[in-house]
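Standup notes, protein team

Yesterday: finished cleaning the Irena cyanogastra set.
Today: Claudin structure.
Blockers: none.

Input for Claudin:
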Amino acid sequence: MSAALQVTAFALALLSTLFLLLATCTDCWMVNADDSLEISHKCRGLWRECVTNMQDGVRTCDQYDSILADHPVKIVVTRTLMIMADLLAGLALATLVLGLDCIMFLKEDPCVKMKMCYGAGVILCAGSILGLIGSVWYAVEVYMERAMLVSHNIFLGVHYDFGWSCWLGMAGSTGCFVASVLLTCCLY
């Protein structure tokens, strides 16, 4: 039972960590498009902004000036939280791999292996919380930006939606949290 739970938690943690990494690296956190014309599709990310021409499919991307340049708070906070979540999830995966019962590392001391799995669950929980805060922070900022335009009657048919990177970050963080619950609460 314990080995099956460990492998299940590892598989979920691995998939969720890949989701977090993809969310951090991809550039479609916020989508805005002109409802009336539907000629272009713009995705804003943490690292650059890309515009896709809907008629011919040509995509052009503009890199942000510099990592150290002045950026909106939502980008800086989300970058920081997502990078920290990626690092913690990676550390948790490495610790979990060494703590799995099916791995021959420290096979003579099962108590240490159990503590490694528990520690991996705690680290994964911290990473999932940071990733969820970063993803939700960005989503709330996108919503507030749209609400401000609507309340000031500046809304000219442009809509702001959460991009697939934002949803991927939320899904990865949630999956890491579920894996951490499996490792910390259900393993004993």
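Follow-up from PR in the comments: The chain has a mean pLDDT of 84.
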